[in-house]
Amino acid sequence: MRALPLLRSLLVAAFALLLVPMTAIPAHAATGTIAGIAVDADGKPLENVYWELYTLEGGEWTTLQFGPKLTDRYGRFSYPAQVGGQYRVCFSDSYYGESSSAEFYWQPEVRHADRCWPNATSWETAQTWTSTAATPSRTFTVTLPKQGLGMAPVDPFVLGSYQVGEPLTVVGQEGWRPTNATFSYQWMSQRDGSPTAAIPGATASTFVPTAAQSGAWVHAVVTASLPGYKPAQLSTPISKVGTAHVQPTTPLTITGTAAPGSTLTAAFGKPADTYSEISWFVDGVPQPRATTYNAASSTFPVAAAHSGALVEARLKIYLTDDEGYIDGSDTFQRAVAQVSGSRPAQALPPAATPSGRATVGRVLSAPARVTADPKATLGYQWLRGSAPVPGATTKQYKVRAVDVNKRLQVRVTVTRPGWPTTFVTTSAGTVAKRALKVGRITAVGKAKVGQRLTARATGWRPGAIRFRYHWLRDGRVIRGATKATYLLRKADRRSVIRVRVTASKPSYLTVTKTSQGRKVTG
Q: What is the number of other CB atoms lying within 10 angstroms of the CB of residue 373?
C-alpha cells in the first residue's frame, strides 16, 4: 500500500466544529447555492476564515473532503446545494498559512471566536437549513465576536528515528510570537483505516514510541496559550513508527556567512532512490520561493530585512520506488543560523490623520488604535515633511509658525510584550495652516419681495480674503444664488433668508459662516 506524503505541516483548526466523520457526499443535481459570509461585530467581512458546510447523509452529518476552505476578501464562500438537502454552516478563525497575497503570511493581530449559523458555538448546536424547491438557495451571515489577540505561530517539526524505544522531539518553536506563550502537546496515532486518536499520557514535547505504536502513523498537536490571546494550534508532520526510515549519507548543515547581503547554503548527502525537500524559514515564517525540491542543496539570500533573525533550513526526505512514496520512510532534519544585527521594525498599515485643527497654535494628537494590544508601548516622532521635528516625541504636537504650508504627520513605534520585533506606522499627512480672524457676516437691505439683500463681511483679517456666497431659503440652498446680492422673489415670501460665506486665503484655513436670518414680507 502507498500513501501520499504530507509535504507540509497539517494546519489543525483548534475547534470542535470539525470533529465529525469526513465522509464523501454523494453526487446530486445541484439546484441551488449556499453562500456564507463571516463578519466581525462591526459587520466587517473576515478574510481567510475557515468555513465548513455540514450535510446530513444517511442519518449522519458529514463534511466536504477538500481544503483549505477559506473565505475570500469579502468574507464569503459559496457551494452548490440540492433540493431536500439539510445543511449547517460554521466558521473558524484559526488559519495561519500563506495568504492569497504573494510573500505574505496570514497573521492578523485580532482573532475571532468560532461560530455556526445563526449564533452557535459548535456544529452540534447549529441550526439546520433545508433547501426546498421554493427556496433552493440561501446566504448565511454569521457574526464572529472578538476572542483575543492573534499569535504568530511556527510550524512545529519532529526530530527522531521513529523507532520503538527511541525519542521523538518537537522542535521549531523558537520563533513563535509571543515568546512567553505556554505550550502544550498531545501526541496522536492512527492506523490505516482507523480514526486518529490521542495517545494516553503522551503530553510532553518528547515522546518515546512503544510497541503499541509500532506500525502506526504518529504526529503531535502543539497548542500555545497566553491570556488575552486566542490559543493557536498546529500539527507536526506525520510518519510511521517501526518502519525503515531513510538516512542522509551526511546530515543537513548550513554554510556561509549569516549576515545581510550574504548567501546561505543548506546541503546534505542524498541517497539514491529518494525524494527530498529543503524549505527555509525566517523567524518561523515560511519562505516558499526558496524551497528546493529533490536536490542535495539549497541556497537562501540573506536580505537586510532578515537582520537579527533566526534562519532555518528543514529537510524532508523519503524513499521512493516505481510506485512513488514508500510508506513511513520519512526522515526530518533541520539546521539553523542566527543572522547578525538586530531585527528591523516591521511596517504596519498607514495610520489615520492626526486629530485636531492643523493651525498655528493648535494641538494635534497622534491617531489612536494603531494596535489592538492593550499592553503595547507606543513611541512617537512627529515629522515635518519627511524630516523628524527635533524634540517632538510625545503623543501631542503644537503647530508652530514654521509648520505653515508643511505636511505634518506622526510615526508611531509599537513594542509588544513577547514580540522581539517592533512595529511602525506613519499617519496620513495634514497640511498646517494659519487661522483667519473670523469677522461678521450680515445680510443688509429691506427683506421684501422685489428688494435686494446684500452680503456684508466685516472684521475679517488679514486682508485679501476671498469670499464665496450661497443664499439659503429656510436653510436650503437657493439654486443659482451665488453672488454677493440676492433679489427677493415671490417664492421667498414668509421664508427666512440667510447668506452663507466661505472665506479662503492661501496658507490659511478655509472658514464657512452663515448670517442671521431675515424674514421676508410681501
A: 20
State pLDDT tens for residues 88-139.
Answer: 999 999 998 877 654 568 889 999 999 999 999 999 999 999 999 999 999 9
Instruction: Give CA separation, 124 vs 35, 89, 90, 102, 130, in Å.
Output: 20, 11, 10, 37, 16
Q: Among residues 131, 27, 13, 4, which one has the least CA distance to residue 69?
A: 13
In the beta sheet, which residues pair with residue 338?
310
The dihedral formed by the CA atoms of 388, 394, 396 and 402, expressed in degrees to the nearest 10: -30
Q: Are strands 138-143 and 32-39 parallel, antiparallel or unpaired?
A: parallel
Q: What is the pTM of this model?
A: 0.80
Which has the closest alpha carbon to 12: 226, 281, 231?
231
Cell of residue 436, nine digits: 483667519
What's the CA gap between 352 and 347, in Å, rounded? Answer: 15
SS3 for 341-400 is: CCCCCEECCCECCCECCCECCCEEECCCCCCCCCCCEEEEEEEECCEECCCCCCCEEECC
Q: Are strands 423-426 and 346-347 parallel, antiparallel or unpaired?
A: parallel
CA pair distance 268, 479, nearest whole angstrom: 81
**Segment 410-454, tens digit of pLDDT:** 999 999 999 988 999 999 999 999 999 999 999 999 999 999 999
3-state secondary structure of 287: coil
Q: Would you state the cell numbers that stand for residue 369, as one nine-digit string?
A: 488604535
**Which three three-digit cell numbers place residue 132?**
426546498
Checking if the pLDDT of 183 tops 60, the result is: yes
Contact 411, 380 (CB under 8 A): yes
Q: Measured on CA atoms in the order 473, 474, 477, 479, is the torsion positive or negative? A: negative
Contacts with 19 (C-beta within 8 Å, 6 or more apart), sequence order: none
